Backbone:
């Protein structure tokens, strides 16, 4: 987690922490499917449906937890704004 004492540096560290958390979710948040075959186990992976409960940081006791949670919420709000269709004039 963040270690800085300066508020601006703590903000930057929280932003980096959230970017890393998002990248890890994209890489690792998958359902592993295993099938027994005559040649041995076969593995496949499926995406996890996060539409009802999106991933969020677990910041139990981390320094700067409230900043991380705010940054994560802001990142989600920004993503939502970008995905909204433009209003016709």
Residues:
């Amino acid at each position: 987690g963040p270690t800085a004492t300066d508020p601006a540096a703590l903000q930057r560290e929280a932003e980096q922490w959230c970017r890393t958390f998002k990248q890890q979710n994209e890489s690792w948040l998958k359902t592993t499917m295993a099938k027994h075959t005559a040649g041995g186990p076969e593995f496949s992976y499926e995406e996890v449906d996060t539409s009802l409960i999106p991933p969020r940081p677990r910041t139990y006791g981390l320094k700067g937890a409230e900043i991380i949670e705010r940054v994560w919420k802001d990142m989600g709000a920004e993503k939502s704004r970008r995905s909204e269709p433009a209003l016709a004039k």
Summary: The CA atoms of residues 34 and 43 lie 5 Å apart. The beta strands are 30-37, 40-47. The chain has a mean pLDDT of 87.
